[in-house]
Write a structure and sequence with these properties.
CATH superfamily of one domain: CBS-domain
Largest sheet: 6 strands, mixed
Number of helices: 18
CATH architecture of one domain: Roll
Shape: globular
Oligomer: single chain
CATH topology of one domain: CBS-domain
Helix content: 25-40%
Strand content: 15-25%
Bound molecules: adenosine-5'-triphosphate, magnesium ion
Length: 417
């Protein structure tokens, strides 16, 4: 099957101009007094346990390089101890790298003096923590406004912004409550509102949903995706849950023992895991939730355009040996489907145009983001291939019903609770 290039993720992000926001270059963090010595010796290539045993140093981040684009939802994934949180702390310079470079908007943040660093943490970045990190004796409103208070923003403005952020995360009416009156999911909404109120360009989220039960967690993921559609922040999101990573991430980096084992789009990770470690992660991932219409669609052999004559259309159908073909208007707008049968019927009528050949029957149309899981019920009742269109109903491709079933068969089933 002809599919899109693996690195063409079918979401809006890919269509936007890519501008690099964060660049990480050969970043190392070796905890311990002899960290630098380890780095300078051959020990740097040895397994983490060996280094610990021989030197007492912990290899937390090893030679990590990547870039994050502006507006990208970038996921850092890996098992416990793989270096995810250390990486985030390095990016905020809460800890100093043993070696390597970190550039944000072209600035070498490792060269920042303490004032620049403070400004960077206050104005450029916000953080959402796993355990919410709320101030227990302050109201929801004051928690959300807190970052703005630190910045010295006057009361009226900070409350205005806090009210707005609280509303954005769906907590309107809860402003005067204390955090402990709220459920876990609600408390994390406060955490997110606090980050939003700061209105920083970069958002760091370290396992923000892992303290929540699965239902709430899924809801929060959905909400975060919706929110990101509105705010377009540059998000670095840490998780050790593959389903979560595949769902929310534009791109995913997988760490193992501090090293990058794979970096790519969710589909790449699923379809070609870089090694056994990733394969193990991916084993229970369900393609039904990951594969999208944009990924499995094909380009049809033939298409009709509304301005074509009836005879020409019949010729096209015959040459392509197709019984039905999509018909497009100006700007590739999808108008419908034309069948050979109907075309032959109306060709006899004087004055008939190709538009009269459009089949009235209902056409199945989906967006490129539609997952295999959601395509499946459509496939069950579709008579013709399913059309994939963009927001303006411009034709992007077609999905043969058989390819939906083929892809489902490759699905190993959903083991996610
Ligand atoms: N301050 C520190 N001193 C020494 N070792 C540390 C320190 N902080 C982290 N480490 C070690 O660095 C490694 C990476 O830890 P890190 O907290 O980054 O992992 P993680 O991927 O965030 O794990 P988790 O999923 O459990 O949060 C671990 O081996 C950890 O023990
Ligand atoms: Mg961690």
């Amino acid at each position: 099957m002809d599919t899109m290039e693996p690195n063409q993720k079918d979401n809006s992000f890919k269509n936007e101009e890519r501008e690099v926001c964060i660049t990480v270059e050969s970043l190392w963090k070796i905890f311990g007094d002899k960290g630098l010595d380890v780095l300078k010796s051959d020990l740097r290539n040895e397994p983490k346990e060996n280094v610990l045993e021989k030197t007492g140093c912990v290899m937390a981040v090893r030679d990590v390089s990547f870039t994050v684009n502006r507006g990208e939802f970038f996921v850092i994934m890996g098992l416990s101890g793989s270096g995810k949180s250390t990486l985030i702390r390095l990016l905020l310079r809460l800890i100093e790298p043993t070696a390597g470079g970190i550039y944000v908007n072209g600035d070498d943040i490792c060269r920042y003096n303490s004032e620049q660093l403070m400004n960077f943490r206050r104005y450029t970045t916000s953080m959402v923590f796993q355990h919410f990190g709320l101030l227990p004796h302050r109201t929801v409103l004051d928690n959300v406004a807190y970052g703005l208070k630190i910045r010295g923003i006057d009361k009226k403005e900070r409350y205005d912004r806090a009210y707005e952020a609280i509303e954005t995360v769906g907590l309107k009416g809860w402003e005067q409550y204390m955090p402990k009156a709220l459920s876990g999911g609600m408390q994390q909404r406060v955490g997110i509102a606090r980050a939003l109120a700061n209105d920083t360009e970069i958002l760091f989220m370290d396992e923000p949903f892992s303290g929540l039960d699965p239902m709430i967690r899924r809801e929060m993921q959905d909400e975060l995706i919706e929110l990101q559609d509105k705010v377009h922040k540059t998000i670095l999101f840490v998780t050790h849950d593959l389903h979560e990573a595949l769902k929310v991430g534009d791109r995913i980096v997988i760490l193992r023992d501090g090293k990058i084992v794979q970096i790519g789009y969710p589909e790449d990770v699923i379809s070609s895991p870089a090694d056994d470690y990733v394969r193990e992660f991916v084993q229970d991932a369900s393609p039904a939730k990951v594969l999208t219409a944009g990924r499995i669609m094909d380009q049809p052999d033939a298409l009709l355009y509304e301005w074509q004559g009836l005879k020409a259309a019949l010729h096209i159908l015959k040459t392509a040996k197709e019984e039905h073909v999509f018909m497009l208007g100006r700007n590739r707008k999808l108008l419908g489907i034309v069948t050979t049968k109907r075309l032959k019927n109306i060709i006899k009528n004087t004055g008939a145009t190709l538009k009269d050949a459009l089949n009235e029957e209902d056409l199945k149309v989906v967006s490129p983001e539609t997952t295999l899981e959601d395509l499946f019920p459509l496939a069950a009742e579709a008579e013709y291939p399913i059309a994939v269109v963009d927001d303006e109903r411009r034709f992007l491709g077609e999905i043969q019903i058989s390819s939906i079933f083929e892809n489902m068969i490759q699905d190993k089933g959903d083991t996610n609770a």
